[in-house]
Specification:
The chain has 109 residues and is mainly α. It has one domain. Helix content is 83%, strand content 0%. The protein has 5 helices and no strands. Helix 3 runs antiparallel to helix 4. The protein is flat and about 55 Å long.
């Protein structure tokens, strides 16, 4: 594992720990149901954000000699494949949280 991967993994772990700390702090001011809803939706948003930043930008930088249009097309194809594979997981998380799809989508955006 290279240093960049370690930094990204550590950053993700720190972000997750901060979300836990925020949820515990929020329990002082909000009901457990509201904190739970916030936590589930923030995890869904964090999940999609991490996927969006995962691979494509580094590949575009590493292949600087290739055609920009070809790289962009490959990036879109790769992103859509990840979206198709991971959409059932995200849908399951929304279903499990008992949130309506519209409110979950609004919070995640």
């Amino acid at each position: 594992m290279n240093i960049t991967s370690k930094i990204v993994a550590l950053s993700s772990a720190v972000a997750f720990a901060l979300q836990i700390a925020l949820a515990l702090l929020m329990l002082r001011y909000f009901s457990p149901e509201e904190v739970g809803m916030f936590s589930v939706i923030s995890q869904i948003g964090f999940f999609w954000t991490t996927l969006a930043l995962a691979q494509t930008p580094l590949r575009l930088l590493a292949n600087h000699g290739d055609s920009v249009l070809d790289d962009a097309r490959l990036a879109w194809i790769s992103s859509m494949q990840r979206f198709v594979w991971l959409l059932p997981v995200a849908a399951l998380a929304v279903w499990w949280s008992n949130l309506s799809f519209a409110s979950a989508l609004l919070w995640a955006l």
